[in-house]
Design brief:
This protein is mainly beta. The chain has two domains: about 140 residues, Immunoglobulin-like; about 110 residues, Immunoglobulin-like (Sandwich), CATH 2.60.40. The protein is about 10% helix and about 50% strand. A hairpin with a 2-residue loop joins strand 13 and strand 14. It starts with a helix and ends with a strand. The relative contact order is 0.18.
């Protein structure tokens, strides 16, 4: 009888009224660090799975985290890879009973061409906080910005016919971390190439090489006017990470 009464009191504690429940949500780039303020953050949405009500939403803020801790220290069970400055979104949700939720992260929020949406589902219990590293969602990809040529740029054929036509792109990890020769994110291990189309048909492949931190360049000879499309990709075999950016431009007579 006493055991039954105790269980009833415990259950009543879970259901008697709304209790603030804290959930830390973090977005971490694949093979990289956390996504925070320096990149504009990742957008987090927590929903009640039953009725799709939004229980909390907001952006991750803070630093990308401790490089050594995240990228160099061997991982063991119970070892936190986040510190007090590491980017995250702390949700404070009032619930009066166990609630099944979905957590969706859209990242990087300010880089639409590189955005990925990643989600997970779990039970939240009233008053049972999920802190520390919290819920960490991995965001795959690279952030690629084609710098040359510009979108829908009109270029006279006579200005490029007798010299190589240059392509230029900025490539960074999803956390904004730098790509450089011999670095933690080593450009020598990455394949950065362009697939060039003219009037909708494949024309050529273009290899780009690192010329300075994050900056890749390549060139090709163009001999005919037309509508051109460049699909530029980065690929890292070890992590399976990929990224894309595209640009259309016009060469005219």
């Amino acid at each position: 009888m006493k055991t039954f009464a105790l269980m009833s009191l415990l259950l009543l504690g879970l259901t008697a009224g709304a209790v603030e429940t804290k959930v830390m949500v973090r977005a971490k780039g694949r093979d990289a660090k956390f996504i925070g303020s320096s990149l504009g953050g990742a957008y987090v949405i927590i929903r009640n799975k039953v009725n799709q009500q939004i229980l909390a939403e907001g952006k991750t803020t803070g630093s990308t985290g401790n490089t050594d801790l995240i990228m160099k220290v061997p991982k063991t069970r119970g070892l936190s890879i986040a510190d007090a400055q590491t980017a995250g979104f702390l949700a404070k949700i009032d619930i009066d009973e166990p609630t099944f939720v979905s957590i969706e992260v859209i990242s990087p929020f300010n880089q639409k061409q590189a955005q990925a949406k990643v989600s997970t589902e779990l039970w939240l219990l009233p008053g049972k906080d999920i802190l520390g590293d919290g819920i960490v969602l991995e965001i795959p990809g690279f952030i690629i910005d084609i710098l040359k040529p510009r979108t829908h740029q009109y270029i006279a054929l006579k200005s490029v016919k007798d010299q190589p036509f240059q392509f230029q792109a900025n490539v960074v990890m999803m956390c904004g971390c730098v790509v450089e020769k011999g670095g933690i994110w080593n450009s020598e291990e990455m394949e950065v190439k362009g697939i060039l189309k003219k009037d909708g048909k494949y024309l050529s492949e273009v290899k780009l090489s690192l010329v300075s931190t994050n900056l890749f360049e390549g060139d090709i000879k163009l001999t005919a006017a037309g509508n051109y499309e460049l699909i530029l990709y980065a690929y890292h075999e070890k992590s399976g990470n990929t990224g894309i950016d595209k640009v259309n431009y016009v060469i005219y007579e």
